[in-house]
Write a sequence for this structure.
């Protein structure tokens, strides 16, 4: 079975402090994992992706995520939050279960950055 | 958003009317998808198409219809049978060699 759980619906951080957005997944197959960002009334933009290569993945805008198979986690981090990081973030799992690609989106985490 | 156009950005309709949302891409991607987004529910798959003239129902296809007559275009019709059509609709594409999806800017549909 495939599922993804974003553990926090809202996260609030001060500008300049670290960001941690948590994501746990379930997959019966070797999954690919993604983080997307969405600003209000916009489409989703890919931040980073894991596709069975290096477990520490670096993305755009200073974000990175670490794939931890033993913990079934793919948490998103950034050392120092910027005001422009305020947005909604989606964790996504994808695998080829049953011979076709299945994709599941998390419900999203809204990041608030306080000046 | 580059390469995927969704129009219009905002759409208003009266209850009982069918409405068609446009999605056009110039990325030459084989697969195209329609998602619906509601607050607190993430994205839910309505329909997808992996090749021209073929499409499959997603998780919430009832009340919707699609066509894929051209590789570049995947219009979504929201019919009067859709009980709660007000939502943000996102179109996405995917190249055959990747699991990564590319998203359009979305259309916000309001039905009153």
């Amino acid at each position: 079975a495939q599922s993804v759980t974003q553990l926090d619906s809202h996260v609030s951080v001060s500008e300049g402090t670290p960001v941690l957005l948590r994501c746990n997944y379930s997959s019966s197959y070797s999954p690919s994992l993604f983080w997307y960002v969405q600003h209000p009334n916009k489409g989703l933009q890919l931040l980073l992706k894991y596709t069975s290569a290096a477990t520490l993945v670096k993305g755009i805008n200073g974000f990175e995520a670490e794939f931890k198979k033993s913990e079934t986690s793919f948490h998103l981090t950034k050392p120092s939050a910027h005001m422009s990081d305020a947005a909604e973030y989606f964790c996504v799992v994808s695998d080829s279960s049953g011979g076709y690609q299945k994709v599941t989106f998390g419900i999203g985490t809204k990041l608030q950055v306080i000046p | 958003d580059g390469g995927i156009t969704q129009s219009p950005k905002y759409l208003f309709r009266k209850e009982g009317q069918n409405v068609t949302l446009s999605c056009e891409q110039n990325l030459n991607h084989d697969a195209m998808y329609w998602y619906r987004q509601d607050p607190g529910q993430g994205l839910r798959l309505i329909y997808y198409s992996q090749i021209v003239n073929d499409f499959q129902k997603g998780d919430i296809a009832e009340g919707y219809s699609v066509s894929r007559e051209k590789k570049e275009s995947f219009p979504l019709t929201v019919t009067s049978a859709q009980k709660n059509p007000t939502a943000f609709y996102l179109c996405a594409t995917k190249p055959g060699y990747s699991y990564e999806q590319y998203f359009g800017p979305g259309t916000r549909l309001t039905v009153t």
About this structure: Chain A has no helices and twelve strands.
